[in-house]
Amino acid sequence: MSQQREEHDVHDPDGVRLQKVLAGAGMGSRRACEELIARGRVRVDGEVVTELGVRVDPSTAQVEVDGMLLQLDTTKVYLAMNKPRGYLSAMSDPEGRLTLADILDDRTEQGVRLFHVGRLDVDTEGLILLTNDGDLAHRLQHPSFEVPRTYVAEVHGPVERGIGKRLRDGVELEDGLAKADSFRLVDSAPGKAFVEIVLHEGRKHVVRRMLEEVGYPVIRLARTAIGPIHLGDLRPGVTRALTREEVSTLRSAGPGSQPGGRTPRPKGQRPVAKAPDRKGIQMVTGSARRTAASSKSTRAAKVAKARGAAQQRRQNGGR
């Protein structure tokens, strides 16, 4: 009796069959989605549904598979962008400086108001998310959700042992204590090092300030991940649409409705860092090396030109 009532509560006779909705959300073939329902892995508005005849309204129903909330609203836009250095994290600027809007494809975003998730200062590059889903944008940015953000920084090296522990234990900044969730050395070169730092707060310039506080001012900084979304091989100035699976995973990064509503971590336990974004790291470190190599080549060309001019003067007897 209870099960029948639950199914009746979520069933919308004018809606779309649940297995079709699941297939449209990228959960597999129609038959595979029927299996998900039959095994009790699907919830609609919080109720487990096991009957294949249930219909739902995709515009209003909240559908979950294994606890992962699916994105069914096709009017929503979800983008990942690799913001280059020199661009403001804004959609417009009264002073006429370059903004995120200068990168977006007008054919896709025309008439759509987008929120950017994860502000980066003008000299920092890397991953920014853009969406017109205000609820998700709020969820990802609210401090209580503790969504981890991953950065790769180029610093003057070598990096001493024990720096990671200091950052994880916390460093005192002018606006309070700041702690890293994780820290590791990614790569090194003569006179410099690349480090990865993960934290879940978004105070202004917090990564730069933390590293400077422990004696490693940042030369270059890039964000390689926001929660489960990684920069990957997305090149600077390029934008891509998130997949349905990525959007659903993002929604699972926070609690169901209100900030602070999820089960808190045990005291002293840090958020679990995601697997390293190796493509993103390679892009950042490789780009830095190419920039350095380009600068070195430019300096070498100037030196060669100066030497050639001096030799020509000697051959001309100083004339």
UniProtKB/TrEMBL annotation:
Q: What is its EC number?
A: 5.4.99.-
UniProt GO BP: enzyme-directed rRNA pseudouridine synthesis
| InterPro entries noted in UniProt | PsdUridine_s_RsuA/RluB/E/F_cat, PsdUridine_synth_cat_dom_sf, PsdUridine_synth_RsuA/RluA, PsdUridine_synth_RsuA/RluB/E/F, PsdUridine_synth_RsuA/RluB_CS, RsuA_PseudoU_synthase, S4_RNA-bd, S4_RNA-bd_sf
Residue ranges with Low complexity bias: 287-319
Limits of the RNA-binding S4 domain? 16-80
Against Pfam families, the record matches this protein to: PseudoU_synth_2, S4
Instruction: Outline the segment boundaries, as ranges, of region: Disordered.
Output: 248-319
What this protein catalyses is:
a uridine in RNA = a pseudouridine in RNA
Q: State any single GO MF term.
A: RNA binding
Which UniProt keywords are listed?
Isomerase, RNA-binding
Q: Which family does it belong to?
A: Belongs to the pseudouridine synthase RsuA family.
- The molecule here is called Pseudouridine synthase
User: Which species expresses this protein natively?
Assistant: Quadrisphaera granulorum
